[in-house]
# Entry
Amino acid sequence: MTATPTKTLSIIVCGAGPARDVGALVALAQAAGWRAYLTATPAGLPFLDCPALEQQTGYPVRHAHRAPGEPRRSRPHADAVIVAPATANTICKLAAGIADTYALDILSECVGAGVPVIVLPFINTALAARRPLRLAVEDLRAEGIQVLLGTGGFEPHQPGSGDEQITAFGWGPALDVAEQVYATTHPESRTSTR
# Structure
């Protein structure tokens, strides 16, 4: 009999090529004992096979605010949030405090509530070179958000080569950081599994 996961991972999916394979991150998380659910940005939603992801996670993929009068839709409290693949647009908006989509609204609230946030970008070198993005990454890191960009994280690719980089996109580093953060904030959960 499998134990019910006690740690919960919220995954925010943006509109970049690797988004279509986010089920791999869900599988990794579930294998590590996480309960996972997904929220998509408007640009991320078309990349997703929502019925398959909903079956895999047991939760609907959220992408929009509820309508006025619609009952609240509850999900478990997140112990960590992974934003992957994170676009330059989402990174810059999050740093600027812009919450103009459901995903950014939820993400901003998690940051303000102290929920650990890990950002795993998928961007090219031209976007990475822009001052607004560099400043956004600095601001997010200063706020305690772990942005996995550069050495030890995601290395930007050349413009126009993103399609060739999709299969090499590494979901694991973001989950590793989530595991480390969870172990630090929940020391009672540490067990020797290796």
Q: What stands out?
A: The mean pLDDT is 92.
